[in-house]
Amino acid sequence: MFGFLKKSASADADASADGAPDVPTPALSWHERLKAGLARTRARLGDQLKPIFSRGKVDAELLEELESLLLTSDVGIEATQYLLDELQTRTRRDRIETPEGIQQALADALYDLLLPLEQPLDVTARRPFIIMIAGVNGAGKTTSIGKLARHFQAQGLSVLLAAGDTFRAAAREQLQAWGERSGVSVVAQQSGDPAAVIFDAISAAKARGIDVVLADTAGRLPTQLHLMEEIAKVRRVIQKADPDAPHETLLVLDANFGQNALAQVNAFDKTIGVTGLVVTKLDGTAKGGVIAAIARQCPKPIRYIGVGEGIDDLRPFAAREFVDALFGFSDSPT
Questions:
Q1: Which of 135, 145, 196, 235 has its CA 20 to 30 A from that of 282?
Q2: What contacts 150, CB < 8 A, 6 or more positions away?
Q3: Digit-coded pLDDT (tens) for 169-211
Q4: Which residue segment(s) compose the domain that 113 sits in?
Q5: What is the 3-state secondary structure (H, E, C) of the chain?
Q6: Which tens digits make up the pLDDT trace of 117-132?
Q7: Residue 324 Cα distances to 35, 86, 302, 332, angstroms
Q8: Would you say residue 274 lies in a domain?
């Protein structure tokens, strides 16, 4: 039977076991947390740029070393070539001949590449604003939903979670744990049709005047065609509940997947029409350069990025913040 899952007395004690670790966020600015989260990617990319640029001259040798460095940081062939071409153009045009100037020119080229992906999500256009969340197994989908619930609550919005992952063991309990931490109700069913769970949640949200519905779905691989067809069915059922929904279809990507993330974007987009991305686990990988590859090869808006386990460690993507943190630049007054 469908129903709202309410808070239990043991919820907080069980949160860690349910997959919602109660990790306190350090009293650091977002820029500092982002910079710390990108440490591994910066160690591979940003920190290794300094000796490459130390000659203060953009020549064939520098370009060859830089190409190798960008490719090993999962920037991808197309984005790498774009950045190399831009670097040559900018250094010639502006007559840049210092290591610092060359690094800044590359950072500016990367910023220009990523800027079109900076499109903050506006959930106030509809009520309820229905967000369908998809992704492969282990990408951090359910955890991201919990963090998004907190993010929207901080904006003064009411949120309802739909436990549409009815297959993975403890998925419902994990989502419930996140809901309990934020005081958000969860519509769930112990087993059965995920589309029916989400349909029920949307109906409940309309009846209660809820602002945002976050609909979880079971993780699946793009090669699992029957499961991809199932998620397409979920989308169709959502449209029956609201002809204009889902108003946003978010694909959660684990940054550790590197270049494989591109195939995921293309496959899920073909099946359910991806409108935005959530890139998670940037703090645990040296492959953060994949964001540049996404910008060049499958430019979907990156709505949010995650750089830690804390409930506040998922924030809207901002190109300048990301580039500054990647290159280790100091926080700007803005």
A1: 235
A2: 181, 182, 311, 312
A3: 677 788 888 888 878 889 887 767 888 889 999 999 999 999 9
A4: 1-9+31-334
A5: CCEEECCCCCHHHHCCCCCCCCCCCCCCCHHHHHHHHCHHHHHHCHHHHHHHHCCCCCCHHHHHHHHHHHHHCCCCHHHHHHHHHHHHHHHHHHCCCCHHHHHHHHHHHHHHHHHHHCCCCCCCCCCCEEEEEEECCCCCHHHHHHHHHHHHHHCCCCEEEECCCCCCCCHHHHHHHHHHHHCCEEEECCCCCHHHHHHHHHHHHHHHCCCEEEECCCCCCCCCHHHHHHHHHHHHHHHHHCCCCCCEEEEEEEHHHCCHHHHHHHHHHHHHCCCEEEEECHHHCCCCCHHHHHHHHCCCCEEEEECCCCCCCEEECCHHHHHHHHHCCCCCCC
A6: 999 999 999 999 999 9
A7: 8, 18, 17, 9
A8: yes
The answer as to whether 155 is a domain residue is: yes
Instruction: Tell me, yes or no, whether 17 lies in a domain.
Output: no
Sequence-ordered list of residues with C-beta below 8 angstroms from that of 104, at least 6 positions apart, any chain: none
The span from the CA of 215 to the CA of 262, in Å, is 23
Domain count for the chain: 1
From the list 142, 151, 143, the residue with the least C-alpha distance to 123 is: 151
Q: Has residue 204 been placed in a domain?
A: yes
What is the pTM assigned to this prediction? 0.86
